[in-house]
Amino acid sequence: MTPPARASALLSRGRCFPAASRFRRPLVRAFCDAPPSLQDAAAGVASSQDQSEKVDGMKARPDELDIAIVGGGMVGLAVACALSNMLLTKHLRVGIIDSNPALKSRNYLKKDGIPDSRVSTVTPATISFFREIGAWEHVQYQRHAFFGKMQVWDYTGLGYTRYSARDVGKEYLGCVVENKVLCNSLLLRLQEENGDIEKMIYPTRLISLAFPSKSRQAPTSAAVSSGYTSEELHHSNLVKLELSDGQTLYSKLVVGADGSKSNVRRTAGIKTTGWNYPQSAIICTVEHITENDCAWQRFLPCGPIALLPIGDNFSNVVWTMSPEESLRHKSMSPEDFVKSVNNALDFGYGPHPHSGSLDYYMEKLFSDIGSTAASTKECFEVPPKAIGVVSERMAFPLSLKHSHDYVSKRLALVGDAAHTVHPLAGQGVNLGFGDAAALAKVIADGVSVGADFGDISLLKRYENDRKAANVAMAAVLDGFQKIYSVDFGPLNVLRAAAFHGAQYISPLKKNIISYAMGDTKWPLFS
């Protein structure tokens, strides 16, 4: 599909919105000088369009943007890429503020190297979004691994569940891609659409934001006669961004894509609800003798361990455990770590699940409820053994956090800046890409009717679309985390019943798969 055709497909789902109101909220704060994290790094920006364009009837200035995206990680780049790919928004002057040197990458990453520890499991819904904006074809030229099967089981040996893409008539359940490949693919697509994207990215940090106040109005003859220049009054309607290299920018809309510790969110005064889990996750790449084509997850007393295929004979390990254990596993010898991984995925902590009379009666009881899923008759399998750890082992603390608001006047939060969830199902980045697609669509809808896309009445439509779905997913993942963090006899039996239900009740299994794939917004039957 050609870029214009993709854009038309995106826009065909658009709605019309009422014109935006003129009220503004007072807000001026400065950032601390703490160094940003890899995800939270903030940096410079420049116009991506010819400076002779006009804004609100005035000649566009070099320091003015339509949309300033703070954070050039996967989700921030996805917002920019979606906007540049739609006919209604590709003319907008979009800037990406991020100092990460990885944004200078413009070439395909080699497939024959060791996979990076940082990967994402992208759903079919995310893949469809990437295809619509033209970025997926670049992923295909770099390392990625589709998987069509998944096995989930409990350390007690009381039950397991097998999932297959065939259960829902699909070719795959998801695809494991290195984060750097996703970012690189989005950058390559931006370059296709915009030519020299250096004009969109300045390597410098954001120092402060100043939002318009209610008292600032559009230029009037009375205001000009009172001593204000028309330029000052024009800028008073925009967000002021001060950068560490001394530049000052003005933008109609700021998109906060600067991670879970978002400075943009903090500056806007948006509060969050959440808590830290008494867990950390350790991630790394391991090697096998043969290729792995299945996603594996076992729930242990300390937290789940996942083994995800990443292509060739490599897999990615995501292992949740106590902070103390994560430090111990990070520092142990490679040989001991491999033994620990294999133990956790095999007989460690408990026996393998095995079929019994309960399974026979469950299968007979539910065989007449809907069409039987293909994976219902599949037996438990032992994951492939790891023979070596081939990457750096990284550990990070886990938490749940959700912003009370996703938007305010001339501001929208996306991705981890708006919400963070437990990684046990690999859904965090998929929620972020869903935010990117929804926000770009709302902006396009506003442009289509000549509305102010920085107005909160329009941006609220993005928040309403995404907040309920994100909260639902966060609640599901938090529930799983809590249920599987307790080793208690009666609860173990209930967990086993849940595994059996998911294995043998085909309508339930198909609904779980569809929800995890992003085909449905809600975890219940829909």
TrEMBL record:
Q: Record keywords: Oxidoreductase included?
A: yes
Question: Where is it mostly found?
Answer: mitochondrion
Ordered alphabetically, the record's keywords are: FAD, Flavoprotein, Membrane, Mitochondrion, Mitochondrion inner membrane, Monooxygenase, Oxidoreductase, Transmembrane, Transmembrane helix, Ubiquinone biosynthesis
Give GO terms for biological process: carotene biosynthetic process; xanthophyll biosynthetic process
GO terms, molecular function: 2-methoxy-6-polyprenolphenol 4-hydroxylase activity; 4-hydroxy-3-all-trans-polyprenylbenzoate oxygenase activity; FAD binding; oxidoreductase activity, acting on paired donors, with incorporation or reduction of molecular oxygen, reduced flavin or flavoprotein as one donor, and incorporation of one atom of oxygen
Reactions performed catalytically: a 4-hydroxy-3-(all-trans-polyprenyl)benzoate + 2 reduced [2Fe-2S]-[ferredoxin] + O2 + 2 H(+) = a 3,4-dihydroxy-5-(all-trans-polyprenyl)benzoate + 2 oxidized [2Fe-2S]-[ferredoxin] + H2O; a 2-methoxy-6-(all-trans-polyprenyl)phenol + 2 reduced [2Fe-2S]-[ferredoxin] + O2 + 2 H(+) = a 2-methoxy-6-(all-trans-polyprenyl)benzene-1,4-diol + 2 oxidized [2Fe-2S]-[ferredoxin] + H2O
Q: Where in the cell is it found?
A: Mitochondrion inner membrane
Q: Which Pfam families match?
A: FAD_binding_3
Q: What is its EC number?
A: 1.14.15.45, 1.14.15.46
Bilayer-spanning residue ranges? 67-88
| Gene Ontology CC | extrinsic component of mitochondrial inner membrane
Q: Which InterPro entries match?
A: FAD-bd, FAD/NAD-bd_sf, Ubi_Hdrlase_CS, UbiH/COQ6, UbiH/COQ6_monooxygenase, UbQ_mOase_COQ6
- Asked if Mitochondrion is a keyword of the record, the answer is yes
Entry similarity comment: Belongs to the UbiH/COQ6 family.
HAMAP family listed in its UniProt record:
COQ6_monooxygenase
Q: How does it assemble?
A: Component of a multi-subunit COQ enzyme complex.
What does this protein's UniProt record list under function? FAD-dependent monooxygenase required for two non-consecutive steps during ubiquinone biosynthesis. Required for the C5-ring hydroxylation during ubiquinone biosynthesis by catalyzing the hydroxylation of 4-hydroxy-3-(all-trans-polyprenyl)benzoic acid to 3,4-dihydroxy-5-(all-trans-polyprenyl)benzoic acid. Also acts downstream of coq4, for the C1-hydroxylation during ubiquinone biosynthesis by catalyzing the hydroxylation of 2-methoxy-6-(all-trans-polyprenyl)phenol to 2-methoxy-6-(all-trans-polyprenyl)benzene-1,4-diol.
| Name recorded for this polypeptide | Ubiquinone biosynthesis monooxygenase COQ6, mitochondrial
